[in-house]
Amino acid sequence: MSSVRLYRRLLHLYPRAFYERFGAEMEMVFTQARDDASSQQRFRVFLLREFGGLMISIANAHWQARKGVVRRTVFNWRLIPVWLFVFSLIAAAVFSLNYWGYLVVPPSIFRTLQSVESIVLVEFDADYRPTRIPINQLPASVIPDFPPSQILPLIEERAPETDISPSLDPALAEMLAAALAAEGIELAAPAYEYPTEPTRPDTCTGCFILGVQRQPDGTLLEIFPVPDQDGNFTGETYTYHLTPEDWYYYRYFAPSGYVVEGRGADGSPLVFTAIASGAVANDHYRYYEFVFSHEGNRLIPQQRQNYAFDIAGIEGMTFPVLTAVCFVPLLLLYLVLVIVGVVLAFIIKRTAQWRSPRRA
Amino acid sequence: MSPLTESTFLILLALAPGALHGYAIMKEVAALSNGRVKLSTGTLYTALHRLLEDGWIEPVEAEDAPRGRRAYRLTSTGRTAVREETERLSALALIARRRLGES
Predict the structure, then answer these.
(1) Pick from A53, A51, A54: which is nearest to A19 by CA?
(2) A220 has which bridge partners?
(3) Which value does ipTM take for this structure?
């Protein structure tokens, strides 16, 4: 392709108005300059300068063509609510992803399992070893916003006929402990361990709490001694129902969740595990999910995800709520400023009219 | 008025004596700068576009000119701008000479 033909084609990269105004003229000037340069044996330098200059000029022309539009769009006060909304969306998304680890719906990788063969409810010790627990010891069974509860419907959908297994294969438990240890996730033992059979107040010296009992509705019944005026126990007790909304609720529980055996899309055996960790970091409780495949007597991680739950004080403040929380005050502030601006403009206009010589 | 870029100033200077078409402007700019400033066609027309928008130059349409053979000339605004820039540069040169003890 000749340099003139290439130049002619590149001229079409200019904004349409610029091209229509200068395109033919530029091609003619380029042709004249090329003829001149080739006769003086400076052709390579000429081409470098011309095509380099053309690229810069095209970029410049596009910026100049849009500069006014950008300025009119960005600085239009009527569009400020739109920018405030966009800002709120971005801020809420960044905060939600950073704080919770998801935008709207807590994600799950459970659907990797195409079929389910066994489900075991477990809790984990500090060495990541799972132990089967009865359903009434798993908060997930009764508490809707406990993360493992979110996947209960998924499990039921995949395995409507599968009952919760009464035992956990010890070999699988060992493999799972080794695999989870290799993942380096943080689990924490329950922060508070109190007898489920309350201590008798008259035998308790210096007790702050006599016992904690798990209730069928998922709440925890804390039993406290009633002291007299001197601080001695009266023998009476009072109770408090601790709910998941109380920040220290989960600290009575060992890390717990599910171990589900099933098969993937290709029929290969997979192990899914969900763990609600008791570990707190930056006001987060961590929730983990893993999908492992079998390789001999080892479990190999195939997928992993985690997010946070029950963050102190801002439960439920995920992306949609945060967007509203951010946008509404900004919008109100904008409206107040607009009203103040309109009133000030009115006052200034009236004052100017009042002071004008015609009035005087 | 903010200082003009060298190429803009040279383009305006090239047009000071009278109307020129694009290629003649390029050659005149190279001549005025002793071959130091060589404008590419793209750079030249970006500058011409801006000068037209600012009203410092205007096109001269010759009836018998072929398509694309359009000449440009300075407007009175453009001439004033060249004059002001020349005075600014002269003042600057004067200060420089005094500092260097040459006058």
Answers:
(1) A54
(2) A214, A242
(3) 0.89
